[in-house]
Structure formats: C-alpha cells, structure tokens
Amino acid sequence: METLVAVGGGAAGMSASSRARRLKPDMEIVVFESTKMVSHAPCGIPYFVEGLFNDENLFMTYTPQFFEEKRKIHVKTNTKVTEIDFDSRIVYGESREGKIKAEYDYLVISTGAIPRKIPVEDGNDRIFYAHHPANAVELRERLWSLNTIAIVGGGILGIEMAEALTHIGKKVILIHRSKYLLNKTIDTELGNIITQRVSKDAEVRLNESVETIKEGGRLIVTDKGKYQVDGTIIAIGVAPNVELVKDKIKLGETGAIKVDDHMRTNYREVYSAGDNTESVNIITKKPAWVPFAPVANKMGYVAGSNIGGHEMRFPGVVNTQITKYKEFYIGRVGLQEDEARLHGFKPISATISGKTRARYYPDAKDIHVKIIADENTKRILGAQIVGGEEVLGRIDMMAAAIMKGFTIEDTFFIEMGYLPAISRVWDPVIVAIRQLMKDE
Amino acid sequence: METLVAVGGGAAGMSASSRARRLKPDMEIVVFESTKMVSHAPCGIPYFVEGLFNDENLFMTYTPQFFEEKRKIHVKTNTKVTEIDFDSRIVYGESREGKIKAEYDYLVISTGAIPRKIPVEDGNDRIFYAHHPANAVELRERLWSLNTIAIVGGGILGIEMAEALTHIGKKVILIHRSKYLLNKTIDTELGNIITQRVSKDAEVRLNESVETIKEGGRLIVTDKGKYQVDGTIIAIGVAPNVELVKDKIKLGETGAIKVDDHMRTNYREVYSAGDNTESVNIITKKPAWVPFAPVANKMGYVAGSNIGGHEMRFPGVVNTQITKYKEFYIGRVGLQEDEARLHGFKPISATISGKTRARYYPDAKDIHVKIIADENTKRILGAQIVGGEEVLGRIDMMAAAIMKGFTIEDTFFIEMGYLPAISRVWDPVIVAIRQLMKDE
C-alpha cells in the first residue's frame, strides 16, 4: 500500500492530504504536526487578541478528529519531525510518546513560515510574536495584562495588531522602517491615507530602525531614540521555514523550496506546498514567494492532485493581499509601481478617489483606487484599493484580469455590475482605467 | 465645422457626447432630450420612493448646466425629436419655444428604453411606471398616498419597488407570472431563497398572469383571481425605444437597433448606443440586448470614441445584473442554466451555501453561489450569487472570467484575497468551483 507523509499540518499539508485521499481512497496518509492544531492559519490572531472570539478551536478549519474520522488521515499532533532521509524515504521525529519513524512513497513538505527576529539583549520574556494560533491564548493573556505595547513593523500584521490593541484601549507605539505604513502592500498615495488613519489611534514612528531590544522587551533602541514600554510585538515579516531540509533540498532564490509547476521538489516523490515553498510570479515570470493561506491551500491541492494521479499545474501567483484597519479595507494585487520598474516594465498609473455608492444613496464610503499598467504593452500590472466597502471583490476581479494578461481596454470593458446601494455607474476601478486611456 | 447630434440625453447620449468632445474640442455638439433631465438613469427610483433621498436633481450624474459650461455641449431639454431625415441628415423636433431643426454630420441615437405595458380598461390614473426619474417626484407623492399597492412583475424593478414600499409600511401584492421571483436573473435554487424572503413582507402571487387591469388601476384581473388595490405598478420589463426610427434604421432580432462593433448603424455616420441598441453576447456570439446603465455608458463611450476619430470596438456583453432585497444582494452574470442549454451548451452546475466570514469572525452572513460551466469545454458559462455582503465584487470577478473564456480550473486559480473579516480562506466561489472539479 502506498503511503503519503506530510510534514506540517497547516493549510497546505491538510489540503494536500485531503485531495490525495479523495483521489486515492486506499492510500495510507499520515500528517506530522509539531503543535496541537491542524488546518490552522495565523490570520485570526489579531481578532482573537481584539476579543472578537474566545474559543481557540475556531482557529482550525477542521479538527484532528475530523480528519481522522471523516477522511481517514492519521494526524499526529505535538509531533516534531527532526530529520528526513530523502534517499531511504524515511521521516524521523519525536512525540510525547517517544521517537517516531515513518517510511513514505510520497512526501509533502508543508512546514510553513516562521517569524523574522530582531537581536535582543537581556532576555525575551516580554517579546511576542503573533504567529501561531497554538500560542494565541497565552499571547492574549499576556498582552491584555500590559498597558503600553510597542509593535515593530508596519506591515499587514503590524497594523492588524495595532487595530486590535488600540481597539481594546492599549497605548500602541508602532515603529516602522519605511516612510509610510504597508509600504510592501501599497504605494505612497494610498499608504499615506492609512498612515494618517493609524496615527489617530497609535503613536506611529516612521523611517526608524530598531537596533536592539533590551530588558526582555521593555526597552526598544532605534537609530533615532529609545522607547520604554511594557512589551514588544515583533511583526517584521516571516521567512520560509526550511531549517529541516535546507541542506538536502534545492531552495530557490527567494529562500523558499524550489518546485516545478506540479509542486514537485528535486526529488520526484517529494512535494512542497505552502509558505515554505517558492512560486513564480505570473506577471514577471520570476521566482516569487507569497506566504498567504489561499495560495498555500491551492498549492496543497495541486500537490495532492498530482500525488493522487490527477495531473494539475499550479499557474503561479499575482500576490493578492488584503487587510483592514478600522473603517478601511486595504487590498492590492500584482506589482507595485517601483516593483514594476525594477522588473523592466515602463509603468504608468492612475490614482483616483471616489465614493462607494450612487451620489443619492446614503452612507457612501470613501474609496481610493490606483491602477498600474505597462506603457508599452498596455497590460495591467497592478491594482491597489483603500476603501470603506467592497474592496475585496474589486481586488479579486483585478486578480483575474492580471492573471490572464488583461490590457487597459480589456479591463475597461469588464461588465461590472451597478447597484446604487453599493456601487457607482462608473465604478471607481473604471474611472481609474479611463484616466489611463485618456490620451489614447 | 462638424456637428454631432445626439437624440436622447441619458447615460449613452451624454457619454458619447462627452467622449467626442474630448477628442474633438472644436466639434459642435447638440443633445436633444425630451425630459427636463440629462445623464439620468432609472436605477435610483425605488430608493427615492423609499425616502432615502429627496432631491430629484441627484438623479442626474451631471446637470445640463454642467455639460453646457464645462464641456461645451448644447443640451436642449424638454425637446422632443419628432423625425429624422437620414438622407438629408436633419433632425426635426419640438420644444416649448416651437419647432426645431438641426443638421448633423454624426448622429447618435440614444433614445433608451420604454416600459412594457399591459392592457387596461377604464382609464389609468392609478397605474404607475417607475421608469423615468423626471416623473419620480409625482410618482412618490402618489404612491405615498396609497395603502395597498399591487406590483405586476417580479423581476429586478418589481422586487426593488417591493423593498421600497414594504419598507415604508405599504401593503404590497406582488403578482408574477413565473414560479419564482427574479427568474430571468437567477435559477430556481437561488430564486426560491429570494421568493421566500420577499414573501415575509409582501403577498407574493406566483404562476399568475394578469389579464387586464380595471378601474384605473384599482382592480387587477388575473387568470386565477381578482385583486382590489389602491394602485398598480407595472414592472414587467422594458423594450427598446425605437418608435422614432424603426422604419428607417435596421433593427436586430432582439428588436433593438442593430450596430456593428463600432456602434455604427446601417448609416455610416449614424451611431446607436444605450438601451435602444442591440449587442452581442460574448458567450453565445448571438445578438443580445442588455438594457443596463454601465453597458449604455460604455456603448456611448465607444460611439463617441469612433466619432472622435479614436477607433474603438465594443466587445459585447455578458449580462451582468445586480440588485438587492433587504439583507440580500443578488447578482448574476453570463447564462442561466436553461439559457445555456438552449444555446447548445451542455451545462453542468454546482450550487453551494456558505458564510461570508471566517468561522470565528462575528456577524457572518449567508451566501449562496451557483456556478455553471460547459461540460465539453470546461468554460464557465454563468455565475449567480445571493448573499449578505460582497456579492457584487464576486460577480464582477466572474464577469471578467466569463468575458475572457476562463475554464473551471482557471477560475479555481484566481488568487482571491482572504481577510477573515470579510471572506473565507476557501472563498464560496472557489468552493463551488471545487465541486465542479470533483470528479476530474
């Protein structure tokens, strides 16, 4: 009987296992997961900290019991894989019950990502990472006991934690290296809007680099000053978790595991999927690394399909990102303008501000749209939206457009729906597109 | 000097004129509009009746003064065109000041649509059409003075008027010919959800045809019974308004004016755009007629571009529709399942019910998604969504997908964003798509 082993029970590992199970009902499938949770994703941690829900089991899409009973997938939680012998096809590990060993015919590496760290001095008992839901209960208890909290890093996690903590009345100091928040998600025009908004609730320190953190997390030393706080959240991004395999498996230039479009590594029977795995950017055709749950799930689905004997190719990524801060939703897809230039495109862009509803319909929200296209080919390269409602769907639409190489004019002709209660007859996206068409 | 004349100052006429003006700054441009309003659309009438706004000028995107002053477009309101001499290129009409006559080099016919009617006996003083914003003030005054109101027709306008009238406490009897409401927008599975919802507020009579209306609108006689009401709204759809030109200009099989992809009629210098104009369905490649404001605007834009010397082609329509009823948004794009069969496709479909937010995020709404694809080519043929939030954007995304011939698998790989506050890691659309992929 064939055996599939997955190392890591997050989104990608469980998605791969579930898909393989559907296609091969008799396969032996074992998932090793180092924490107590499976099919988990960190996206919910800020909302847990905010107090929007209290049951940590809700972090899991399905429980280990569900996978065991409904899908006959053996889930070994609290089991850390310590070594993989790729030549003999054996996984070694440790659980509470002792050492484990498992042979495989197919392997899925789905070890996810780990938070990037900052040099610290004098311990780390007040340094926090909002990374794994298995630690969310303790994280929340600790954070709730503090008054002034520093967040290092003004990316997606940083502003989501700022939203959560200011909402529950904490004093937040947000220290960010760049000149505006979310600079790896959106460009200056829209980033400034969010930076101003966050600054109403939190002390935002821009253009400032943390040099070290002392007193276990209570003293932050930057290139511009010192901050005395009760605790510090590090939110400077994540890195592919490849420690276990990095000397044995081929990595890509992003540092994540290199795979072909079947999600196969340099070992034919070894697949990799999720936040530890490199992909290809559909626009630039260059290696890309997009550590978000929907991509992880689909990578897992593709790996599981191929293991299950149904050939499937992963087409690459367009780097869709979406977050929110209080009344604003913030989304992007494709390349930012500088990124586009860096990749040899000649970007042109239009940024417009509008409203989300017909001029006569009450409670319209502000919406800001930036569209980036290539001057030579007229292809859409990127879209960024900050607004009060219906941001996600517009970003999703632009994701579809960018994936298939829509031009400016193609996008103009997308037959977007019009309902006065929720949109404008000339949709803000189309208004931006029209600006790009103006001089034609 | 060249002269452009537009007959009809709605969305299409003003869009064509504005685009031509931008491209030809010196052109003489005159718009004849039979009512007092321009760049109007009827979409807002139900909300005006509901009392969500009170200023009728808000129906206009821009006022006649704006066009006159900012765009140097001569807008002649309250001016009815009575005849067009296509050989001599002269438009004749009547205004309050007397007869008018205008020669043209280019003509845009943008006469819009008119409501379909029902045979009546004994006058029509209590029969209402919620069609033109120029009559909205009077319409609202009349409706507000009545208690029990019948609506004939359970399409988009019918349910929007039902929403408005039940919201302000009127007793509504909604009489519909088909077995569920919105049957020309969505299929049975989703249509039943809306039908049940509307039935909570209004008396919904299905499978019932109106034979005549008597007593000026106070007695409705159907094939199943009689209803005594205070007034009747007719909402059984619209027809292309081609009375003025039908004997002189080539019409298409839908009854609307036939144009090429430049929006040109059988006269080289005569264009047609908007609800009076036929288009092509991108999926079936057959003639189609989609009388909605965004399409009208884009048709006008294309006509104006071509008149202005910038060649542009209208790619056709995918029939995007969106409406709402109380807490539900209702959208569709592409073909319904029966429509697909009728056009020679072999439709397969998946209908799923889900939630709009991560399982741990509060206040998730219900959402129901139906996706239709062709079994042979795997192309997506249609999408229908009924749900509590973010319906429009998903429909817009599917509009983009359908326009460019996305397959089931292409759609699976659209990198939809995931934010727990407003979506699911496996988006409901992707869940439906996965069902369609299941047996592959």
TrEMBL record, chains A, B:
<protein>
    <submittedName>
        <fullName>FAD-dependent oxidoreductase</fullName>
    </submittedName>
</protein>
<dbReference type="Pfam" id="PF07992">
    <property type="entry name" value="Pyr_redox_2"/>
</dbReference>
<keyword id="KW-0274">FAD</keyword>
<dbReference type="InterPro" id="IPR036188">
    <property type="entry name" value="FAD/NAD-bd_sf"/>
</dbReference>
<dbReference type="InterPro" id="IPR023753">
    <property type="entry name" value="FAD/NAD-binding_dom"/>
</dbReference>
<keyword id="KW-0285">Flavoprotein</keyword>
<keyword id="KW-0560">Oxidoreductase</keyword>
<dbReference type="GO" id="GO:0016491">
    <property type="term" value="F:oxidoreductase activity"/>
</dbReference>
<feature type="domain" description="FAD/NAD(P)-binding">
    <location>
        <begin position="4"/>
        <end position="284"/>
    </location>
</feature>
<dbReference type="InterPro" id="IPR004099">
    <property type="entry name" value="Pyr_nucl-diS_OxRdtase_dimer"/>
</dbReference>
<dbReference type="Pfam" id="PF02852">
    <property type="entry name" value="Pyr_redox_dim"/>
</dbReference>
<dbReference type="InterPro" id="IPR050260">
    <property type="entry name" value="FAD-bd_OxRdtase"/>
</dbReference>
<comment type="similarity">
    <text>Belongs to the class-III pyridine nucleotide-disulfide oxidoreductase family.</text>
</comment>
<feature type="domain" description="Pyridine nucleotide-disulphide oxidoreductase dimerisation">
    <location>
        <begin position="322"/>
        <end position="424"/>
    </location>
</feature>
<keyword id="KW-0676">Redox-active center</keyword>
<dbReference type="InterPro" id="IPR016156">
    <property type="entry name" value="FAD/NAD-linked_Rdtase_dimer_sf"/>
</dbReference>
